[in-house]
């Protein structure tokens, strides 16, 4: 399974959603998640993210491991997104800012 992590929050470029063959991205107000029950590990999405927010489960940095559970949880609550849209307006300001989880909107 692939996992969306901290750096997507407040950026949400959405390039990732266009390449997913099984439509397993789900969209919240300022973050996307991958449904681990649907992901087929094709790895197509990982290089598409301009801010490197997507990791294979086994490559997750220690500090991002909790995003596995968060992706699974929010995928149940949020609708599927399959078409790219504009990134959030302040994405440049937020790229690379650490610990953005505190800004997650549900
Ligand atoms: Fe979709 Fe493939 Fe990415 Fe899984 S690894 S979320 S199936 S694009
Ligand atoms: Fe987020 Fe990157 Fe996709 S910022 S929406 S994981 S392209």
UniProtKB/TrEMBL annotation:
Which cofactor is recorded for it? [4Fe-4S] cluster; [3Fe-4S] cluster
4Fe-4S ferredoxin-type domain location is 1-29, 30-59
> Which domain of life does the protein's organism represent?
Bacteria
* Keywords linked to the UniProt accession: 3Fe-4S, 4Fe-4S, Electron transport, Iron, Iron-sulfur, Metal-binding, Repeat, Transport
- Listed InterPro entries: 4Fe4S_Fe-S-bd, 4Fe4S_Fe_S_CS, 7Fe_ferredoxin, Fd_C, FdxA, RnfB_subfamily
What GO molecular function terms would the record report?
A: 3 iron, 4 sulfur cluster binding; 4 iron, 4 sulfur cluster binding; electron transfer activity; metal ion binding
This chain's function reads:
Ferredoxins are iron-sulfur proteins that transfer electrons in a wide variety of metabolic reactions.
Q: Which NCBIfam families match?
A: FdxA_Protbact (NF045490)
Q: What is this protein called?
A: Ferredoxin
Give the organism, scientific name.
Ostreibacterium oceani
